[in-house]
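Researcher: Quick one. two chains, 471 residues in total.
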Amino acid sequence: MNLDFSVVGHSLPYLWKGMQYTLQLTATSAVGGLFFGTLLALARLSSIRWLSNTAAGYVNLMRSIPLVLVIFWFFFLVPLILQGITGAERPPQVGAERTAIITFIMFEAAYFCEIMRAGIQSIPRGQVYSAYALGLTYGQSMRLVILPQAFRNMLPVLLTQTIILFQDTSLVYVISATDFVGAASKIAQRDSRLVEMYLFVAIVYFVLCYTLSYMVKRLQRKIAVIR
Amino acid sequence: MAMIEMKGVSKWYGTFKVLTNCSTKVEKGEVVVVCGPSGSGKSTLIKCVNALEPFQEGTVLVDGISVGDPKTDLPKLRSRVGMVFQHFELFPHLTITENLTLAQVKVLGRSRDEAIERGMKLLDRVGLNSQADKFPGQLSGGQQQRVAIARALSMDPICMLFDEPTSALDPEMINEVLDVMVQLAKEGMTMMVVTHEMGFAHKVAHRVVFMDQGEIVEDATKAEFFGKPRSERAQLFLSKILHH
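Model:
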């Protein structure tokens, strides 16, 4: 077998563009997922029955189907649904990049919801009482007292989930979005250098994720000391 | 008009009745101590005053405002009633200064400077102004509880509720907290205090409410209560805790 890694060097600018998209997708999905996940967590913990049931139903649904399917559905079905609603002649296209961002936020929200729910439940009930006793409303108590503490307690888990998300974004290849893996596989096929390219991609993922996990582990130890 | 008035308050957790037909009053400037064996519903009763615990029957009036009325603006009412908890419940992610100013700014709409000035004055009063920039976790239990009292006072409350304020403290720290409370009582603050500290009750209470199994068994002046409680259960309780 003759391996020629020069193909990696030649295609670096293109691969970097793919990596930029991967990072952008990861960051947007993490922030969006955390935002909607926190709202979902508050809904799940609500004493209003229909609200908590709806949130729980959504989370369980998302967690029970593979991410690839969610992406597929969104990419192929949503245009048809939109067509049905608007009555347009042809299904309006959502586009690969927008599909990716929306589905990842929707999907990650379910996972971040469970993390934030555990975080909120880890805060003693007395904290809510004392916030209420000072005259803070429900919204203020959550925003100023409970969520900052829950977020801090859950930071290592949130970051670990984000690392998993970073790897999962590679699934967008199924709708032909050009992320890091997508860019690499396009070049690999064009130049018939599959082994070299996929080896390179694997090494990059490994180095990045391993470094990040290591940093999370150190952060965890530091937080443990403060508490 | 009484500052706090409870009339026929009953509360259930599911089918379990925790409060049975409780009625009592705290007049303006009065200090009322609520005592009784653990599990008798004292903490639940005091939490009904500012609606931290909902109740199913009866009425609670604070400064003439009905706590159980769904139309009552609860956050506004609570902001006028100071409360101190057994486990302090300072906000651990905020500094002492931020703990003291948060509600002043967010609830009362005071400016930051104004809130800090008020907060520091009260922190000085409980003898802790050197701790302003620390976090609650860096303070001892007694210090944290004194900050909690200062935090409640910073809202300029019309009355104060204390829910076993010294029960979670090491013995050597109990007095520093009680001293602050005695001082407060002497200045004429209206106070409802759930506590086992009979020394405190002796010193400053006007009336003592004795609870057992969710009922108010005895509601008497201090002299009557410590002199000769009418109920057998109160006599038994006193004989148990006053021996040592």
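Chain B has a mean pLDDT of 93.
Researcher: Thanks, that's what I needed.
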